[in-house]
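Handout, section B. The chain below has 443 residues.
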Amino acid sequence: MKKSNRPLIIIILVFLLELFVVGTLGVTFLNRVNIIEQKIEVGDFRDVHQVQDECKDVKDVVKKELGIGMIACALTTLLVAIYLSHMVIYPLKKMIESKEKKEKAEETEIKTRLLHMTEGIIAFDINGKIDLINPAAKMLLKISPEDYTFEDIFNKFKLDINMEKLIYLQELTSMEQIIEVEDNTVKVLFAPFRNEENNKPEGIIAVIQDITESVKLDTMRKEFVADVSHELKTPITSIMGYTDTLLEGDYDKETQKEFLQVVSSEARRMAKLVTDLLDLSRIDNNKKNTKKVSFDLGALAKECQKKLAIEIKKKKHHVECLVTADVPPVYADKDDIQRVILNILSNSIKYTPDGGNIKIYVGFVFNDAYIKVIDNGIGIPESDLNRIFERFYRVDKSRAREMGGTGLGLSIAKEILDKNGGSIDIKSEVNKGTEVVIKIPTK
């Protein structure tokens, strides 16, 4: 017998038992009545009093048996009620409590997930009032305590969006909007939700994502492609122009030499740009092997100064290299660090007027050795300082291009130092000079 059928069988048995008790009482009563009727017919009763006494006896018997039957039915019903409460009502109550507990746990879990989500979630009811909102949504949209409704939140962004249109138009299932919130860019996805039973609309859910970094990266990518195209186009145009001129006319050797020098210069500039781009690509894709060794940073700084001696002499600069302390060996890729020093020092030479002063200090602080390059050159405006490590960014593009710069030197320097666990910091003031500090970890 299946456990689920037990209550039904018990109820049927109780019904049959009670039917039996009632039937037995009824039969007993009918038998006694029939006996009395038979006695009356044959004249067994001498007078009315005797009939009354017999009827009274019948009533007493019926009352007694009826009482016993009622007690039996009551006890049976009580036992059945106790059994059913234990077997049916209690499990049912337990099941309901378990379901409520499960629903409560699921609700708590959902709230916890919403609380810790990086994406913002806002649920609006059919009237546009906020039903649910998580901290990320408040932060991303800068929602104040006074904002209670759909209009309060989104009207201030001047969005061309209508809540009724979102909810009731069948063909419109969702809508995306890009919003500028102060310095950040967020994407908001609006989607209506419906009642599962009657499929009637109940409100709107807004999902907010911070896409600031994606937008910045996309903008940088577009700028990068445009800058590369421009930087390559300029020398190619020059090379093509001068070579076509040489081919079209018969020029003397001096003119030919002058033209070829321009072609050579532009070709070298283009080669340097391609080399820098390849270096950046290798660094970005972690394809450039970093071979760290221990070496003397002071000796490397003086070696770089010697390599740039011709440029220093041309501009009549006074360059001084001082090792300020007993600097322990640094642990990094020597070739990479040499490239960084040469880049910083050559920038100082380029952008310092003839006869300027450049000082190189090599020292040690905490666990880092440092090189400090100070010049009295043209300097960098404060507004440009936070962008000088961007690829192709140049303070004075025309002047930098004229001096052979690609706008990638500082970007490469920063990438190299990051790979070697170092850092670079630049301070500058227009027409007063620039100070560059490079830090490299010691072994």
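Note. The mean pLDDT is 79. Compare this with the example in section A.
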